[in-house]
TonB family C-terminal domain-containing protein
Amino acid sequence: MSGAQLILLSLGLSVGLAAAGLALLGRWERRLGDPALRERLWGALLYVSVLPALLVPLSLLLPAPVVVVPGLAGGAALSVDAVPAAGAGPGLSPDTAVLGGLVLAAALSFLRATDLGRRAIALHRLATGARDAGPDVVRKISVAAGRLGARVPSVCCSDAIPTPLLTGFFRPLLLLPETVAGPAAEAICAHELAHLRRGDHRTVWIEEALLILCAANPLLPWIRARRAAAREEACDALALSGASDTARRLYARALVEAIRKTPSSPVPALTFTSAKRSFAMLRLKAILEPAPPAEPRLRRTALIAAGFATAAAASASIAVAAQREPVVTTAQEAAAAEADRTIRNPDWARHPMPAYPAAALDAGVNAGSGQVRCMAQPDGRLSSCSVLSETPGGLGFGAAAVQAAGNARLAAHQLAEVREPTPVVFTVRFRIAG
């Protein structure tokens, strides 16, 4: 298959993996209970679904396999006449269909990237237009962060947001509304700090990048939405750890109020209402009736299942990449290409220092030579050496030349030619001074 066909096939494999995972995990999700475990499983499905779209294009960066076929007698060229299939009429050729599919996939990726850029600009304007929070607010956030085991972020206030917002990949920033007070507000801030403890402020950007890369897969946004819903439930559980029923009801009421105020086009950041509204009822139920943590046995089983799914996706991706169309060449062309690459009479940073063969000394021969072929490595070392010829024969000059090559090194100026293992042919000469 051509590279374009392989990329299109990898996208189809991505869709197939996503569909299978949605059907399986969607059926068993609520039986798992623990939102932290469900979030990890949805995340694993997202990464597994994208794996073929990553591995197959990366495999195209490697050299294509080469198939050497025997040349025809007299050096005649091998040719095949294309005969149209019987009954084939004008229509859409396979190559045109593949090209159209790739153009559509690229267009979808461009549109998603453009949308992300627009939302990122809006987020940047929010962050730059905010003011530093007062010392009392920063102190409360620091206390809450210490209780949750999270780092203390930069804290700013803005009148342009209705609910706290966490952003920043390397330097987390917590944006708060101008008016934030009361137990419910403190619990909402704790929710954002729970995101920070889990590293979700980085995960959200990684997800955006994956959705741009694989925008042609229509199931990935749904998988991401399910993961976001489980993520919000997991952060609710952390923020409400040890809370009373009254505090949980206040928290649920604050969530309903925040959902009403959430803008229709959210910025790419973590807010109190990051999940889609369609999951709000399930989240409210989890707030008022929290699920117990998953048992260790269930966690191990889920981890093993995710490992098997990853291995299966990687194997399928490798199998697709193996369908790459090889480069066909004749034996004569292959030999000519290797001859063009071969370095002859190289310059040395460390010359071969051979030992005179004992058999030649015993025979009274005071001169000889051995021609050697080696593979030069990018660091100048020589490996896989073999004897091409020796003069006189049968006295060990070739073997001594091979042994001497083991300590030799190519000169630095020739290493620019050696970006991959390259054939080197040279002659080692022996002589006894006398």
Q: What stands out?
A: Confidence is low (pLDDT under 50) at residues 72-89. The two ends are 65 Å apart (CA to CA). Residues 94-128 form the longest helix (35 residues). DSSP finds 13 helices and 13 strands in the chain.
